[in-house]
Structures are given as structure tokens and as C-alpha cells.
């Protein structure tokens, strides 16, 4: 399997993905007013959570997160940078989104590749790519006691770019065209799709036959009551 | 171990359990106003979460959820059906409960059987049956940012039917009477117990020596403030 | 590896750590008004969660929690005691903290030792010690739908005592001085540091460059809206 992809490049892509996801976790921790250890833990969980889930599920234990010191130190570096140098509060939301998009692109590629290396079928490898890309963010949101962005209707589509990127990698595997240039292309494809989704507010449909007006009003009211951090954001951007 | 239980029947029972749990996850996603991907993800997590936990813990990796395409596609089918054909909003609560009860019955049986196949003791197999049956629902509620139904006092008992069903299977194993008819009987027993609990509002006691009045008032007030989705339900049923 | 540490003593330390963590989980369940099964489940999850995470990650499956009946029964005993004999409501917060501190001390020691036994480096073993010590409490808070204490700025430092205790064990391993007396000393060190942190309200800093006044006000307001259980505590102590 080492011929599929240069181990060294995959390692650096992994570290880059961990770093940008960890930045997004650390920024959310700052927004939620966590202390320095909360920032570090949320950076570690966001950066390593998707890969940890992947490794535990495919049986690659102990996971890279616990055998490669670089994997552990990278989120600490991200937490350190955010702790001292994080952007102005009002810029945080946008920065979280862009870093998160970059992590999405990198992780759906490495997740799909590693899933296939460990014997999963192409379809399961695509699912594993999506799980690797989305897992860290879901854990981040669960630990911050928020409804995961991945699931929310009022957030731009997240799953589609990851599925497209993972499927592109599966196609490359099928065509025996896995090379640094092509896989980086797949990561960029997912990254750009996610940025476009953010730029143009692409949203996925909700269930049919909903009693729209009443339910939406209730839901909106409920979300406002449940998620006062939105209030913080509005103040921050005001 | 294949003589214990027809692999094909266990496979179909598994798929049926996954399907009904996935329906319950998809319906909750609709109630929480998630988009189509949120519906699919919550269906997958609810349908596969308990079995995934079981397989990771007993070392059956990669788990069936990632090696059997049917396991992955079944929740998607459930999400598809709910997306287009979900019942009227006011009927959702009841449907979630009944489907969830069916999944409970099926999963406590298959979880106990698989735990024992992988070498757990009878007691541990019962615990594994309960964890398999309750795991998907707990993950569903955690992702939807709700207190798991499993834990709440103001919900009908969920653990008792699962423990009874799992214990019945353990007894069957001990008596060497594991056959399709007897195991389906154990699943029906748990299913019916859960339906009875729902019908007659069976609730489990809370801790002794609580200062009932004050604390209950606080808790009720707190729950109302925390869980506006209850408001949505009341409107739906009005 | 059996020369590192008496298996019997490690087993008893593990059971003691499970017991005190389970007490903290059961007490939180009482405070959250869960029923008897919710109390038992939260006791099991809090007591076994950290070790379960550790065992799954290092590949020690099936985990001790599912092979050793004592590991399963200990949290039930804790739940039983709390159910019938839990202290007056107004004393609960303090009791949770002290029991939790004792579990922290014991688990960071056993987690570091077991991580090293399974081939992790000393650094990774320290991380595993922290994860073992903090994992159960994080799962407890996530299931109770609270922001994990571990992450919150307005809670006394939790990570520092665990890191100090785990690092002390790593030093003992490095110096080949792992004996019951020295490892119990490391557990006591972490326990006492945590108690001092609670006594003197040691808190960790938050990110630099925050717009303190506005953001704090927002955060306080938000937390008050999100976490009415604080209201319950104030009433309980009034």
C-alpha cells in the first residue's frame, strides 16, 4: 500500500489537516470562554477526533494520535497560537469556517485512503472519509454543548463537499491514479466546494410535508432560547 | 458458534433493528428541523451506533457497519422514507416511540448473542445487549443536544425491557435453547414490555430523601427553559 | 510487565477509582433528577468511561469493564449507596468534587501505567493517564447535557493535577521506581493538588486579547440562560 501514496506526504497532509481543524476547535473554545486547558483539549479533540475514530474503527490501534508525537503536539501548537494571537473576536466565525473547510478537504482524502489501505471497500472508504472529516467537528460541537453544525439546516452544506472529495479519491483509487498531485486536487475540490457553499449560503433541503410556518416559528424560537452564543456573535460583529 | 443461530436470520434481524432505530433517528431529526444530511446522519448514527459500539468494544473490527453495504444503506432507506413520507408532525412522537421499542427488542437480542459469540460471560453479554440496544438512542439524543431519554425520570422505563430481553437470551444460551423462534420470542418480550411501559407510563423511582417539592419545581422549570422542543411538541399535538 | 506493579494492587486501585468516580456520576444524576436507571447508567459511564476509552484505544479488547465482573458491579454499588443514602442535597456539590478528585488521582496513575504496559511512549502514556482520568467525567457531563467541567473557565483547574500525577508516574517508570508506595504517592499528589485547586479556587487563564467586559457579560448571560441547573444548586444551598 505504500506505493499508493508517499508516506511522508500523507504524514504532512495529516498534520496540516490536524492543525487547521485544531485551529477551528481552539477558536470555538475561545468563543465559548473556555480556559487555556479547555482550549488545548478542544484543539486536540477537533484535530485528532476524526482520525482517532477512524483508527479505532478500522482496528489501527494504538492510533497514530497516540504513537506519533507530532500528532499530539500539532494541536497544542494551534492552541498556543490561538491563545496568544487569535484574531479579533468579530473575525472568529469566518476564520473558524475557512480553517474548518481546509481540514474537511484534507481529512476526507486521508480518511478515504487509510480506510482503503485497511481493507474497506470503496463505498465504505468514502463513508470513512466523510466520518474522518466530520468526526472531529462533531466531537468539538458536542463537547461545546452545541448541536453539531453538520446536522443543522441553518448552516451551509458540509457533507456534500466531503462526500464529493471522498468519492473523487475513491475514483482515483479505482483508476489507479493515486498520486500526490491528484489527491491534493481532490482535497482542493472539497475545500473549494465548501468555501463556495459558505460564500453562497448553499443549504440542503429539509423534510417534505413539514407544516412550515408553525414549526419554523417554534424552532426559531427554540433555537434562540437554547443557543445564546448566537447573541454573543451578533454583538461581536456589531 | 454458527450453530447457535442462523447467520442469515441474525443478519435480517440486525437489518430490521437498524431500520427501525434509523426511523426513530430520522424522525427526531425532522422534529429538530435538521436538513436532509442531518436526517441521514442521525438515521445512520441511531441505526448503527449501538452495534458500532458493541463491535469496537468486543474487538470485531472493522465493524459490520463498515463491511456490510446493507448495514450502511438501510439507514439511508429509512432517512429517504422519512424525508418524503414522514407522518404528520403531530404523530411523530408516538411513531418514534414504537419504532424505537422495536429496535430495542431486536438489538438487545442480537447484542447479547454477539457478545457471547465473542467470548463475553453471560452477565457481560447481558450488559452488551443493553448497551447495543440503548447505545444508538443515546448517541441520537447527544447529537440532537438533548438529555438522553434513557436517563430521564420523566420518560417511561427503557432499561428494564432491554435487561429483561437480554437476560432472556442469556437464559436461552445457558439452557442451550437458542433457536430463531425462542430468540424472536425474547425480542417480542422486550418490545411488548416497552410498549406496556409507554402505554401505562411506567416510570422508575428517583433517589430517596430528595427534597421533593422544591427540587421538582426547579427541575421542571429548568427543563422547560432548556428544552424548548417540548413546546414544539405541545403545539404539534394541539 | 507484572513486575512493574502488583496486579492485585492495581486491580484494587482500579476498583477504588471506579467507585469514587461512579459516586460522582450518581450524585450528578440525582442532582439532574434522573431515575434509578439513569443513576446507575451515569455511575457506570463515569466509573468505567475513562478506562473503556483507554482500553479501546490501546487495543486491550474486550476491555476490563466487560471481562471483570467486579468492574461492572462496583458502579452499581456506588449507585445503590447514592440512591438510598446520598447526602443532603445542599452537600452534594462538595461531595462530587472530593470523590471526583480521588478518582482523578487514582485513574491518572493506572492510566499511565497501563498505557506504558501496552507499548506507548512515556509522553503518550502521560496523555493516556490524563484521558483516563478525565474521560469518565467528560462523558458524564456530555450525557447530562452540560459543558464538561474540564473545559470551563469558571471551574477550578482539573487538567493540571492529572498531568502532574501522570508525569510523576512517567518519571517513576523512567527511574525504574514503580512500586505500590511510590505510585500511591503519585495518586495522592494529584489528589491533593486537585483539592488545593478546589480550596483556593485556582483557575487557568483564558485567551489573551479578549474583549473582556462585553464578552464576559454575554457569556455570563448565555450560561445563565443555558444552564438552569445552576439555579437548582443555588436553591439547594440556600
TrEMBL record, chains A, B, C:
Its main location: membrane. Residues 12-86, 98-172 form the Glycine transporter domain. Belongs to the UPF0126 family. InterPro entries: Gly_transporter. This is Trimeric intracellular cation channel family protein. The keyword Cell membrane applies. Residues 213-238 are annotated as: Disordered. It is found in: Cell membrane. It is a multi-pass membrane protein. Pfam families: Gly_transporter (PF03458). The keyword Transmembrane helix applies. The chain crosses the membrane at residues 12-29, 36-53, 65-85, 157-175, 181-202.
Amino acid at each position: 500500500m505504500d506505493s499508493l501514496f508517499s508516506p511522508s506526504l500523507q504524514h504532512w497532509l495529516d498534520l496540516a489537516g490536524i492543525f487547521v481543524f485544531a485551529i477551528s476547535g481552539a477558536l470555538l473554545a475561545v468563543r465559548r470562554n473556555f480556559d487555556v486547558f479547555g482550549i488545548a483539549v478542544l484543539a486536540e479533540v477537533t484535530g485528532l477526533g476524526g482520525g482517532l475514530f477512524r483508527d479505532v474503527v478500522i482496528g489501527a490501534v494504538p492510533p497514530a494520535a497516540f504513537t506519533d508525537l507530532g500528532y499530539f503536539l500539532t494541536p497544542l501548537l494551534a492552541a498556543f497560537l490561538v491563545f496568544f494571537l487569535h484574531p479579533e473576536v468579530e473575525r472568529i466565525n469566518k476564520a473558524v469556517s475557512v480553517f474548518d473547510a481546509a481540514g474537511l478537504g484534507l481529512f476526507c482524502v486521508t480518511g478515504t485512503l487509510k480506510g482503503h489501505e485497511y481493507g474497506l471497500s470503496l463505498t465504505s472508504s468514502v463513508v470513512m472519509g466523510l466520518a474522518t472529516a466530520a468526526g472531529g467537528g462533531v466531537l468539538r460541537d458536542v463537547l461545546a454543548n452545541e448541536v453539531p453544525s453538520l446536522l443543522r439546516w441553518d448552516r451551509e452544506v458540509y457533507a456534500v463537499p466531503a462526500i464529493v472529495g471522498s468519492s473523487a479519491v475513491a475514483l482515483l483509487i479505482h483508476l489507479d491514479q493515486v498520486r500526490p498531485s491528484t489527491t491534493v486536487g481532490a482535497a482542493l475540490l472539497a475545500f473549494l466546494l465548501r468555501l463556495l457553499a459558505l460564500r453562497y449560503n448553499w443549504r440542503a433541503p429539509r423534510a417534505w410535508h413539514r407544516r412550515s410556518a408553525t414549526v419554523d416559528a417554534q424552532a426559531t424560537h427554540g433555537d434562540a432560547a437554547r443557543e445564546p452564543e448566537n447573541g454573543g456573535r451578533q454583538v461581536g460583529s456589531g
